[in-house]
Protein: High-affinity iron transporter
Amino acid sequence: MDTFLPAFIMGFREGLEAFLIVSIILQYLRKSKNESLRKYVYYGTISGIVASLGIGGILYILSKAIDRMDEVAKLWESGASFVALALVTTFIYWMIKHGRNMVSTVESSVSQNLSAFGIASVAFIMVAREGVEVAIFTFAGQYAIAALFTGIAAALVLAVLINHSLVKVNLRILFNITLAYLILQAGFLLGYGIHEGLSALGSMNLLSSESPLFIKAFDLSETIFYHKEGLLGLPLYVLFGWYSKPEILQFILQYLYTGSLFYIWRREIKKETSKLTSFAQ
Structure:
């Protein structure tokens, strides 16, 4: 249960964006009288999905191999979390900068690549980008595969309904909610990497148990805020990556990271609002 919701939302968010991107490309080709290129969109989409599954499969096999290792596994998981975090952060930053203008961004890319190879490449890159992000997050966060594909399936159903105008959804609000959740999960990934790294260094006697790095910011593990079983702690852990007994270093860096991304996001929103206001005047 503690990994179902993050995996579902991750699959839903990235799946919906990928499916909508494909829909935008197809609609643009129809509007620009280039429907003969539609089949190349499908070629690129299928190739992107296959590439994503291939990378996901490699990471899955790697994670299973890591699980069979000794305490070195924790150190490896910590390092993998930081690598994944770096990649995920670039994805989140791209979404913050361009997510609100997804239609114009995609259409601009398509208009500059109106050829069989160009259209297939655009579809491949954009679909693969979403798929790779899911694969990396799943590997680092050890999310349930079933929950992940449930989210993707739900996204496909919603995308089809939206494309056929059977339902109306405020995509900006939906993407904002899920982006906020991804930022929180990325912060959780950073906290997890730090915690596992310190634990591994301690287990391998590379770091003294008396090291100030092990000092806890607070300890609420005996209260309802216990992140594994607490009445409030478990939901907070699932939703926001809450830890009931974090090291000071983990606590500071995790929330400094999430706070910084939310600040950048808010700054971009203010910039866009300012531009719209100036244009209106």
Summary: The radius of gyration is 21 Å.
